[in-house]
Each structure stands twice: as C-alpha cells, then as structure tokens.
Amino acid sequence: MTIRFKTRLLVLATALSCAVAGVAAAADVKPRLIRFGYGLNEESVQGRAARYLAQELEKVSGGKLKMKTFGSANLGSDEQMQGALAGGAQEMMVGSTAPLAGMVKEFGVFDLPFLFNSEKEADAVLDGQLGQDMLKKLEAKGLVGLVYWENGFRNMTNSKRPIARAEDLQGIKLRVMQNQIALGVFNTLGANAVPMPFSELFTALETRTVDGQENPITTIQSSKFYEVQPFLTITRHVYTPWVVMASKKWWDTLSPDEQKLVRQAAEASRDFERKDSRADSTKAMTTLEQAGMKINTVSPEEVARMRQKVQPVVDKYTQELGPDLIKQLNDEIQKARN
Ligand code: TK8
C-alpha cells in the first residue's frame, strides 16, 4: 500500500465514522428528557415499539435525547394524553386515530367499516398523500403527527355467544372506542354500543359491565382478554391505525436538528412496529387457541350483509367528512389494490 493510498483510506474512514456517529455530535442537540405515553402494557406490540423508539432516539442523538416510556395508560387514556400534549404537559404519545377524530374530524375515515382489504393497502394510504395531509391537520390543534404504527384489523370478542350473523349481536353490550362512527356502526349492526376508554376496558369486561369488545388479535392476546372473553369472532371489520405524536408546544422548542432526529427515530420505529405487529398477529392467534377461546370466522356472505347494513352510516359520514375526501381515499385504496 502506498502512503498516499493509506492517507486516502484514513480520510475515508474518518468521514464514515463521523457520519455514523450521526448528526448528533456536530449538530445543535441538547440533553432532553421526553415522556412517551401509550395505552397497552409493556409486553404488547406497542410496548416493544415504544422501547425500540427510545433506544433508537438515544442512538441517533448520541445519548442526548432520552425517552422515558409509560405504558398501560399510566399517563392517561388516549384522549387524556392528547389533551396533555396539546397543553404542553407531556412531550409524546402513541394512540388510536378514533379518539383523535374528536379534534380533527377527518380522522374518522379510519373508522369507516370494511375499507381496507390488506395491511399493504393501509400502509399505502397512511404513508401516502391522504395519511400525510391528515397528520398536518393536527398542528392547528397543538399536535405534531409523526408516523402511523399498525394497530391492525379489528375482531370481536364477547362473553355470550359466537357471532355468526349480525343478529347475534342483539343484546350484546359492546365496548367501542370513543368515536361517533364506531358508535353508529355497532348500533346499526344490532349491538348496544358503549363508548369507553381502553384503560377501563379489562375491568369492565371482568365485572360484566360490558359483554364484549373489538380489537386486533395482538391486543386481545397482550391484554389477556381471553381470560374474561370466551368467544372470538374473526370479522376484520375495520383497520384502525395508531399515530405517534408530539406536543406542538414542545416541538417548537426543539432545534431543526433535534426535530430531524426525532422524525428519523419515529420512522425507524414505524418500520419495526409494523413488522413486529404482523409477525405477532400469527403468534397471538395460536396463544388464543391454546387459551381455549372458541373461535369462529364470519363468512364472506355475512360480511357482505353486514356491509350492506352499515351502508347508511357510511353514507351519513361520507357527507359529514366530505365526499371529496372519501373519493380521494377510495381512489388511493384502489391504486394500492391494483
Ligand atoms: C390503546 C388504544 C387501543 C385501541 C382501543 O390506548 O381503544 O380499543 O384499539 O389500542 O388506542
């Protein structure tokens, strides 16, 4: 090796290691503590992704941006945390879009039933124009929407009977998320829908304050609903996402470099979380079978009947959310489908 070549290698190696050490060293990054709240427990998909996000943030910031995570709604329900972020009392959170629709009504589109057929379609819409436009609408309400995590396709559980047809929902008190569309959909299908924050749900099921609920398989497993709900019905009736958000009041105090690092870590957590959620979904199903849940799948014909039944609710909210928005949504889904 010639000396010149050696020097060149050294220069290259130094440049590389600087790049790896990250923007953090040279950039305007101050030591900060970020409180990140979420609703599920630490052993859930959400818990794992929160830990991943905290580690990633610490890594990309060279240890300066430290995140403390609080699971099991220890900082409050989704709705309470939204308020805390808007007021500047908490820095970050992840929560469902359903209660966010109380702040930005357009988020209600994700509560429209039987919209997406696959995770791939959901990813395309959420990471595409519509999903990103929606995140921007949060700013006016004091929130900065960063990325979508997967919660997943929702299915029903209850303590009374298998749901083979919509009629089987008659008389079932079914907890739904705090959202007008969810309420309308389940009442129209025949259930007695009861809106309630997730943080109160296990106890409500255990004490039979409600008979049933609906959530993705991963949550039914991690929240141990199988201990109090003998029946699981696979309906995949709606795909609801989670949104990772920051308080705008707090965000505005960050330097552009810091904002960039938080975004970067959030994007990495999104990719991690979606992969983990999809793998966990299969595993969770086996756990639920082994736990002795009685599992049935609603037939495609019955899904078509349910779809028809809830069409008036879809029509009503198409008007309320804006026919143009719903058209854009359907166009984007169609594009992803083909
Ligand atoms: C967790 C909730 C949960 C949601 C629900 O805080 O409320 O049923 O599915 O994931 O956001």
Automatic annotation (TrEMBL):
Entry annotated with the keyword Membrane: no
The entry's keywords: Signal
Keyword 4Fe-4S belongs to the record: no
Any one Gene Ontology BP term: transmembrane transport
Residues annotated as signal peptide: 1-26
GO cellular component terms, A-Z: outer membrane-bounded periplasmic space
GO molecular function terms attached to this record: carbohydrate binding
Highest taxon above the source species: Bacteria
Protein name from the UniProt record: 2,3-diketo-L-gulonate-binding periplasmic protein YiaO
